[in-house]
Amino acid sequence: MIKFVVNGANRTGTHFLQSLLNDHPDINCYWDIFWQNDVTPIGYAAYRKQFGNDFRFSIFARHKVLNGFLDSHFAKPVGVEAAGFLLKSETAANTPAILKWFQKNEVKVIHLVRENHLMRIIAFELRRQKIMVGHARDPVKFTKICIDAETLLSRIEYAERELIRHYKRLVGIDVLEVKYELLIKEQDEELGRIFNFLKVQKMLDIKSEFYKTEQESPRAMIENYDEVFARLEGTRFSSFLDE
């Protein structure tokens, strides 16, 4: 059985991809089992509680518990050819022992990247303002947002640096990079690459339980688009704008 994770930063479409993979009969892909607010029995938060104070105060104990959790998690799926879960890049950065376990246990990483950092910032703002999320189980009414043009360049540059840092964390691991934009436009082709990476049969008509709610057009999403355009025009990030 192939072990894998769907890995990506917040607002890059990881839940969308996780849902697509789960529609394949030979793949089992759990949600973010390391999410700190996960109260289900299958999550890491529930697993570590049984170890009490030892977990909180001993680094050795933390690594032992983490390794035990991952061992037991990948032992559960049966009857599938590939099993995995969703792992946020932020979690990998805060808990590097997870990636060390991946290296030792030949876990494949499907790294989902959203190249247009402006669109990712828009997704953050939509979520922060509780307007909507990028993918939802039910259709959502769209509302435009305002973006702070003064801080926009620094936010994009920060996102760029974070992505570079994460690439370095993945050294030594078998990684397939998937671009979110291509996954949306050419879903069958990109899923075909992923299925080949996971060594499962290629299938068409794979469906997600989520609707895409965002439009892939900054002009359609931003109320003060003219300000944002003026801020990014002439910079190396101008390609993020509508032409």
Provide a concise account of the structure shown.
By secondary structure, the protein is α/β, with parallel strands linked by helices. The chain contains twelve helices and seven strands. The mean pLDDT is 88.
Offer a few descriptive terms:
243 residues; alpha/beta; Rossmann fold; 5-stranded parallel sheet; two-stranded antiparallel ribbon; 12 helices; 7 strands
What can you see in these coordinates?
By secondary structure, the chain is of the alpha/beta class. The chain has a single domain (2-240), classed as Rossmann fold (3-Layer(aba) Sandwich). The chain has helices at 14-22, 44-49, 52-57, 59-75, 89-94, 97-104, 117-128, 149-169, 180-185, 187-198, 218-221, 225-232, and strands at 2-8, 27-30, 82-88, 108-113, 135-136, 175-179, 211-212. The strands form two sheets. The protein has a five-stranded parallel β-sheet.
Secondary structure elements and pairings:
Layout: E1 2-8, H1 14-22, E2 27-30, H2 44-49, H3 52-57, H4 59-75, E3 82-88, H5 89-94, H6 97-104, E4 108-113, H7 117-128, E5 135-136, H8 149-169, E6 175-179, H9 180-185, H10 187-198, E7 211-212, H11 218-221, H12 225-232
Parallel strand pairs: 1-3, 1-4, 2-3, 4-6
Antiparallel strand pairs: 5-7
Helix pairs in contact: 8-12
